[in-house]
Amino acid sequence: MSLIDGEAEVLETDAPTRERGDRCVTRTGFDLRAPATPYRWFRISPRRVQAWREVDGMSDRRLMCDGTAG
């Protein structure tokens, strides 16, 4: 499980550049620019990231805090 705490910016549907859209297709194999159902685009600037496998592993799972890894 992952927890990402940060600032999210909603982008207009036509906001992603061709380069970003192509990069998304390359990474995911799915073209979000031409779906039957429109998707929302977000830009997230993470401030804190945590990851763990189960509840008992939640302590000391901080991957990023205040924008700094560690």
Describe this entry's structure for a reader.
This protein has 70 residues and is of the alpha+beta class. It has one domain (2-69): Pnp Oxidase, Chain A (Roll), CATH 2.30.110.10. It has 1 helix and 4 strands, in the order βαβββ. It has a 4-stranded antiparallel β-sheet with strand order 1-2-3-4, with no helix packed on it. A hairpin with a 2-residue loop joins strand 3 (62-65) and strand 4. The longest helix has 11 residues, at 18-28. The chain is elongated. The model has no long low-confidence stretch (mean pLDDT 76).
Determine the number of helices (DSSP H or I, runs of at least 4 residues).
1
Distance between the termini: 18 Å
Q: What's the CATH topology label? A: Pnp Oxidase, Chain A
Mean pLDDT: 76
Main sheet overview: 4 strands, antiparallel
Rg over CA atoms, rounded to whole Å, is 16 Å
Q: How many E strands?
A: 4
Side by side, the strands of the main sheet go: 1-2-3-4
The H-level CATH homologous superfamily, spelled out, is: Electron Transport, Fmn-binding Protein, Chain A
Structural class: alpha+beta
Q: Class, according to the CATH hierarchy?
A: Mainly Beta
Helices and strands, in order, run as EHEEE
Query: What is the count of distinct domains?
Result: 1
Helical proportion, percent range: 10-25%
CATH 2nd-level architecture: Roll
Which stretches of 5+ consecutive residues score pLDDT under 50?
A: none
